[in-house]
Amino acid sequence: MIYLDPSLNRWAAGTFVISLFVVLALTLAPFNFDFEGSVSLAEIASRFSHRSLTDDWIANILLYTPLGFSLAAWLWAKRVSESLQFACVLLFSFSLSATVEVLQMFLDSRVSASTDVYANSAGGVLGLLCFNRWGQTVTFNVFLSIEESIQGFIQRRIAACPIQNMTFILIGYVTMLFFLSSSLQNAIHLGNWTQPYFLLIGNDQAIGSPWEGYVSKISIADQAVSEQEIAQFFAKETLPETLQKSLVASYDLLSRRESYLDQTGNSPKLVWRGDSVQTGNKDSNLVNSNRWLETETEASFINQKLRRSSQFTLSAVLATADVGQTLPAPILSLSNQTSERRNLALAQHGSELILWLRTSVNNTEGTNPELIIPNVFTDTNFHHLLITYNDSRLHVYIDSLQNQITFTLNPGVVIFQKLLPLEKFKNTGLTVCNILYYALLFLPLGILTGLVIALSKYRLARHAVLIVESVLLAPLAFELLRTLRTGHEPNLASFLLGATFTAAAVSVILIGRKL
């Protein structure tokens, strides 16, 4: 029998915890459960009637294989027999999968399926079989050699360094994080906007049901505005002078005409499509399923200018004629009705305003992620919307400076938007991506710090200095550098995320070394 080194137990337990976290994150995120109301056993059975596709079967098996492998490894390190290992792995995989599938019933973005339970259980057993076949003779030898190499390198090269050298290592790490973050941040721009798209008001057939409402004025500029300028705008009801100089289109739609000229002279005129306009009718400027406004030709100038600047400000005065429009009803879009591709779109869904923005990292529909602004269409009165986007931060103001909501397209979207169902997360997905992004940045720093403290011969005071530098000063320096690069104000929540992940990793390493 292979000698059971205590390191095997640590490796197995650590791998199991990581595998379990990955399973829960990928199957239950964004964790916005809705437990209102009771669910009967009959309803649970009916929801479990869904069947998974072949791709889902393969994905579920592979998802649970590392979990079964690591659990079998941990049981083996505890000298549990193979028959009991099989029973424990099968029971745990089945129970965990069944629990996840039941919890998914309370998530709007998930669909439960009974076949997933079987696939997940099979994945756990497959991991057990892989361990019994190769793990005892090969895998743990690899783990031990890796651990010995890491410990030897840290003891010889890093832990033996003076504390000032460790400070320089931390400075280098933060600098590397800054340049990585800047590179990812540059990917969140409007560089993939398509130029030959039309400006549509009231009816983009590729989005959903036609919108029913009124739009009295629209202005679009290729520049973002500051909060001070927005306050002046709402106080005086006139565009700031800096914004007026950067207008790419402006339409006054209050009067009843057959077409509307762009007051800047840069963009094509808006013309009615569908039913003809009846100027004597009080609802002649109402857009609905029968008629809508569309630029006479492609609005290439608007798309081109916003694409180059990667910033914009959109001002619109509008009112819904039906607060109960439950399907996404397009209010305004830069798109083409012949396809689902668009650069920008606003839509109504009940009382919510939906915003789709296409960037270089999301899909061509701009729905990944979908941004939701609640409680906008609670009445049929006119409301003034002001939307401004600068680099990665999007602000939406409704009628006043105080009534606003902000979305930040953080670099985590670049990394995780292909791995997570962001179109289902909606605005929650931005927060999930940001948390995962900071975990990816600062967990390695915490692990390195914990190993240095555990393996070095520094005095307690030097350990304290190293912890302060890693847990507090490194995340703070990163946030300050990021602030200088973006021009945005420092974000306390981001600093706390970095500090929390670093401190957590240090604690886990130090506790693990004592066990």
Tell me the name of the CATH class of the largest domain. Mainly Beta
- Provide the β-strand percentage band: 15-25%
Tell me the major beta sheet. Answer: 8 strands, antiparallel
Oligomer: single chain
- The number of strands is 15
Mean pLDDT: 80
* SSE order, one letter for each helix or strand: HHHHHHEEHHEEEEEHEEEEEEEEHHHHH
Low-confidence stretches: none
How many structurally independent domains? 3
Q: Could you describe the 3D structure shown?
A:
The protein has 515 residues and is α+β, with helices and mostly antiparallel strands. The chain has three domains: 158 residues, no CATH class; 118 residues, no CATH class; 211 residues, Jelly Rolls (Sandwich), CATH 2.60.120. The protein is 50% helix and 17% strand. The strands form two sheets. An eight-stranded antiparallel sheet has the order 4-5-7-1-9-10-11-12, with no helix packed on it. Strands 2, 3, 6, 8, 13, 14 and 15 form a seven-stranded antiparallel sheet that branches. Strand 13 and strand 14 form a beta hairpin. It is globular and about 85 Å long. It starts with 5 loop residues before the first helix and ends with a helix.
Topology:
Blueprint: H1 6-28, H2 41-47, H3 54-77, H4 82-104, H5 114-158, H6 163-186, E1 198-201, E2 213-221, H7 227-236, H8 241-245, E3 247-252, E4 259-260, E5 270-274, E6 286-287, E7 291-295, H9 300-309, E8 311-320, E9 329-335, E10 342-349, E11 352-357, E12 371-373, E13 383-390, E14 393-398, E15 404-408, H10 411-416, H11 422-425, H12 428-455, H13 460-486, H14 492-514
Antiparallel strand pairs: 1-7, 1-9, 2-3, 2-6, 2-8, 4-5, 5-7, 8-13, 9-10, 10-11, 11-12, 13-14, 14-15
